[in-house]
Amino acid sequence: MVDPAAVGNAGTAFRMDIERGKIREFAHATRSADPRYLEVDRPVVPPTFLTTTFFWQHDQADPWPSVQLDQQRGLHAEQEYEFFGPPPRAGTRLTCQSRIGEIYTKQGRRGGELTFATMHTDFWDEDGRLVARATMTGVETGQPPKGET
């Protein structure tokens, strides 16, 4: 069951180095043929590339476990990316930090209560400028799926 006391919990900051080869691999994996990701020396990251943060975020850097979302009843509901200027390019070193944002409930269309939790991850460049924010929303259904207890 989601723990509302998790709101405000922040993980430790961690580093993410943006590498040209990883941008290229990501573009191929997402079937992109955009030359901005494949054919330049310092390509920009595709907008959803920041999802790879999860490969860099370990242990104390990840506050999501404090939400205690029941994985039997949990869903990944939404992922959003906001950029505050041009997207980062290969060769950029980002400092990242995640924090638990909001936890709230809504009545579901099928009669059950849904509990939503958000986690925001901020990305700063080497000069300390906020370049992007990723917001992940998870949801826990009010009861386990039918046939499971």
Automatic annotation (TrEMBL):
<dbReference type="InterPro" id="IPR039569">
    <property type="entry name" value="FAS1-like_DH_region"/>
</dbReference>
<protein>
    <submittedName>
        <fullName>MaoC dehydratase-like protein</fullName>
    </submittedName>
</protein>
<dbReference type="InterPro" id="IPR029069">
    <property type="entry name" value="HotDog_dom_sf"/>
</dbReference>
<dbReference type="Pfam" id="PF13452">
    <property type="entry name" value="FAS1_DH_region"/>
</dbReference>
<feature type="domain" description="FAS1-like dehydratase">
    <location>
        <begin position="6"/>
        <end position="133"/>
    </location>
</feature>
